[in-house]
Amino acid sequence: MNPLLENSTLRYEAIRYDLIKGEHFLPALAEAIKISYQNIDKIKNSEASFENTIEGLEFADEKINYVSGIFSGLYSAHCTPDIEEISEELNSTLTKYYNSISLDLDLFEKVKAVYDQTDMDSLDFEKQMLLKKMYKFFVRNGAKLNSEDKKIIKDIDEKMSALEVKFTENVRKATNSFEHIVTDKEDLKGLPDTAIEAAALAAKDKGHEGNWLFTLDYPSYVPVVEYCENRELRKTLQEARSKTAFGGEFDNESNVKTMLELKEKRARLLGYTNHSEFILEERMAKDPKTVFNFLEDIKNKAKPVALKEFEKIKALKKEMTGDDSFYNYDSAFYSQLLKKKELDLDDEALRPYLKLENVIDGVFDIAESLYDIKFKEVNDLPKFHEDVKVYEVYNLDESFVGLFYADFHPRSEKRPGAWMADIVAQGMKFGKVSHPHIHITCNFTKPTETKPSLLSLNEVETLFHEFGHALHGLLSKCYYPSIAGTNVLWDFVELPSQIMENWVKEKECLDLFAKHYETGETIPVEFINKIKEASNFLEATSTMRQVSFGMLDMKLHNEETKKIDSVNAFENKVLSEYQLYDVKGERSMLCSFGHIFPHGGYSSGYYSYKWAEVLDADAFEAFKEKGIFNKEVAKSFKENILSKGGSKHPMDLYKDFRGKEPSVDPLLRRAGLL
After folding, report:
1. Pick the catalytic residue: 164, 169, 226, 466?
2. Is residue 528 part of a domain?
């Protein structure tokens, strides 16, 4: 029996993580592809119509989507040796299948016939969007090319698939291979007790009891660069982090360069000047010029303020040390000291009030208040690791919404970062409307022998962010899975996630969950006021950082790749315009920049974070005007944004919610740049 091919008999068709093994995937995928080809043959032998052709294609590969969705989730969050072993073959098999479909001229002619002959006004919005999306899928994947160019596209896609697997493996292995042992506790001066205890526990687990072990996992790395007085230790971790998968055994530089060359070649074959032009055709921004102007405008507003912020940080360092030098491994440390000096706020003082379990309860309470849904933790449904929490989600009338899986702590099988995945997307599947199975994955501070998992404020914001994505997937009410949930234009996908971060800084929200883990005391009002005051502390510096990543991404995908002799040199050249301090040692964020290479989906799209900030700031003002838990506004956001997926153009959805196009002013006000 192959659990990937059998219908789950568990309630709500919960995935049989208790039965699924690596050995099941390739046979299941082969059978799913066989079924899909049978469905494709039926389409090609039927009269071209919306139902026969477009809907037929939408549902032809639903078994493939099920198998590949589960695999993708495990590969990112629980990449055991048996999963890693088959990853390249599985991804190559998928790429070959999708190429065989997208380059099938007979199939494209069927789709084109429906596209050319259909009166769009006769279809509802969702059907219109599906038809347009299906037609563009074929065109943008080479259906109109001659046979020779189709072979080249096929070869490019297969090479890209293998390179993406290698890139991801190198990042994970490079991250896991770094360990730094500290033998003298004096070297940890300034480090919070929670971080010291966690490092001692990590050392004990690795056979170094009595010492302290640090890694590049976020909860280990960040406290060192923000709080440790030992400049050499900060430098060691900062430089290691900056060189993840750059040089050494797991070097990604050649992989990055090859992927860039392949993406450019592919775009040109399809008639575009470069990869950015190809990507942005299907974004709200529409073209590279719009994005460059957008980023340049923000940079021009932020840079003068950021330079003043930097001078204050640098002056503080000189005042404390008498030393004028300032490097990248000084930035986070002295920024924290400046925050403490100017705002009397130490982020570590907030941790005792931010126990993970309380934050989870709080975000669930917010979802119930806003969207009339509730979460029930269950222990009898399978999960792929003991750390994972499983929840059933219901409407207040007890009707079922979906399954929600949450995986919060780092481990060697998990890639760095935080993300949401709709392992089973909402929509029609196997003859009935399917409930979504949504996962969020993070790398938060672990509990220690004496303390529960106490989050930083930044980790809380990350949890709210990923939970916003989860709501987008859970509350979807579409018929077609390919346009349900987060299947929207990529520069719109961050609106539901980023707007959730706004609640974190509001007293009405913090009062729900910010309680001292030992005393139960609600977070003091003065702390809340300081959090609000600090919300745009060094905001211009933060803005410059985000804009620099967006500009690096855009310039990388707009240059002729043959002109890029060294990816590292190109990166340094672009970032130098945004850099406020000297960088010591080698670095290459591109070698581990998963957002714009595999999995992230943000190539020529990293600007989306700032683009969506315009949307989320404007949208949150609607809540602020009537109350952050106002039912009327929440209902409109749920019905016009969260439930609609990609069934209409994002700007139309936004205007349905807000009654107008977004203004940039709320963002500039929030950032203190007006």
Report:
1. 466
2. yes
Closest CA to 440 of 412, 471, 411: 471
Region of 476 on the Ramachandran plot (φ > 0 left; ψ -120 to 50 alpha; else beta): beta
253 is a catalytic site residue: no
* Full domain range(s) for residue 221: 178-242
Relative to beta strand 437-441, strand 400-407 is: parallel
327: which strand partners? 582
Share of the chain above pLDDT 90, in %: 90
Question: Where a domain ends, among 242, 260, 295?
Answer: 242
**Predicted model pTM:** 0.94
- In the predicted structure, residue 672 carries a pLDDT above the cut 80: no
245-298 pLDDT, tens digit per residue, is 999 999 999 999 999 999 999 999 999 999 999 999 999 999 999 999 999 999
The Cα 452–Cα 268 span in angstroms is 53
HEC per residue, 588-612: CHHHHCCCCCCCCCCCCCCCHHHHH
CA distance 64 to 33: 6
Question: What CATH code is carried by the domain that includes residue 490?
Answer: 1.10.1370.40
298-349 tens-digit pLDDT = 999 999 999 999 999 999 999 999 999 999 999 999 999 999 999 998 889 9
183 lies in the same domain as 140 = no
Q: Please identify, among 188, 217, 242, the residue that sits at the C-terminal boundary of a domain.
A: 242
**Integer Cα distance of 19 and 530 in angstroms:** 49
Cα 44 to Cα 57: distance, rounded to the nearest angstrom: 10
CB atoms within 10 A of CB 179: 15
- Amino acid at the residue 312: K
Q: Is the pLDDT of residue 604 over 90?
A: yes
Q: Would you tell me how many other CB atoms lie within 10 Å of the CB of residue 387?
A: 16
CA dist., res. 241 & res. 515, Å (int): 33
Provide the domain count of the chain: 3
> Does residue 189 lie in a domain region?
yes
User: Which tokens go with 618?
Assistant: 């404007």
The CA distance from 601 to 16, in Å, is 28
